[in-house]
Amino acid sequence: MKKALITGITGQDGSYLSEFLLKKGYEVHGIKRRSSSLNTERIDHLYQDPHEPNRHLILHYGDLIDSMSLTSLIQKIQPDEIYNLGAMSHVKVSFEIPEYTANVNGMGALRILEAIKLLGLHKKTKFCQASTSELYGKVQEVPQNEDTCFYPRSPYGVAKLFAYWTTVNYREAYNIFAANGIMFNHESPHRGETFVTRKITKAASKMAMGDSEILYLGNLEAKRDWGHAKDYMRALWLIIQQKKPDDYVIATGITTTVREFVIKTFDLLGVELEFSGTGIDEMGVVKNVTNPKYKFTKGQIVIKIDPEYFRPAEVDELLGDAGKARKHLKWQPEYSLDAIIKEMLESDLKTTMPPNIH
């Protein structure tokens, strides 16, 4: 039975990767930070009591900023595969806590790779770094592939760039199987509610139930290449199954604006939107309602712009070319963006609806 160690197991990606690996017959070990409040809801359906014999999912306390805890866990577990998914994952917030972001997102990868080296596990343990399209930032070409120059535009992106090149360096210097999965934006019902996609589907669901709140957004023209987290976790697994380590772009090859994401979301609720005004005065208003099940009214203001949600340095367009992954990994996404939005919206509606409406 293979052993996998996952940092960030309680996050969106960690939950789907855990589920995937357990179905593959792995013994899955996850690192979670100590907190006074539980944050395991995404993996509660996978949880196994410590008293159960032959457990296949085992959680450990640890932290990416604590090299001693990482090294001791890796020595104890002796994992065949390590997936470094843990990160301070919110790009906008990284401008507010840049030092912490660098410590977790950048130095975290270094600490794991150094542990593999020091413990002499370079022939046993494979390492996969969850890298990001934010490396491209102020894009130098469209679409972006493995050879595109990096130009990160946030502390998050800069820290992830350090982790990317650290992964390459340890691969070349110490012959460690260390690979990067350069993942473009990936979403799901497990996405955190402060991320723009989940923020949109959650707010739209509340409005559908009669909540009078307004959805405040930033740059509606930002273009992103959105895929499903399940597809992208399958790609990371394929990367680590290769005979030789390498770096791969994981993307759908389709770009969509935030505005289009909003329109698609409300359209699934039977709401046609129209936008008026310009700049920070722009608003999204209900133009027509075709589904009487939901509590929207014509003329209802549902979208406004808040300058607080603009980044100090904006990333305007991300579009990935996953040709290398398609060729060498035989990977391609199974979910369309429409299917992703539908799944997220249905999940949020279930948690928003009163019990008697289910």
From TrEMBL:
<keyword id="KW-0521">NADP</keyword>
<dbReference type="Pfam" id="PF16363">
    <property type="entry name" value="GDP_Man_Dehyd"/>
</dbReference>
<protein>
    <recommendedName>
        <fullName>GDP-mannose 4,6-dehydratase</fullName>
        <ecNumber>4.2.1.47</ecNumber>
    </recommendedName>
</protein>
<feature type="domain" description="NAD(P)-binding">
    <location>
        <begin position="5"/>
        <end position="344"/>
    </location>
</feature>
<dbReference type="InterPro" id="IPR036291">
    <property type="entry name" value="NAD(P)-bd_dom_sf"/>
</dbReference>
<dbReference type="GO" id="GO:0042351">
    <property type="term" value="P:'de novo' GDP-L-fucose biosynthetic process"/>
</dbReference>
<comment type="function">
    <text>Catalyzes the conversion of GDP-D-mannose to GDP-4-dehydro-6-deoxy-D-mannose.</text>
</comment>
<comment type="similarity">
    <text>Belongs to the NAD(P)-dependent epimerase/dehydratase family. GDP-mannose 4,6-dehydratase subfamily.</text>
</comment>
<dbReference type="InterPro" id="IPR006368">
    <property type="entry name" value="GDP_Man_deHydtase"/>
</dbReference>
<dbReference type="InterPro" id="IPR016040">
    <property type="entry name" value="NAD(P)-bd_dom"/>
</dbReference>
<keyword id="KW-0456">Lyase</keyword>
<dbReference type="GO" id="GO:0070401">
    <property type="term" value="F:NADP+ binding"/>
</dbReference>
<dbReference type="GO" id="GO:0008446">
    <property type="term" value="F:GDP-mannose 4,6-dehydratase activity"/>
</dbReference>
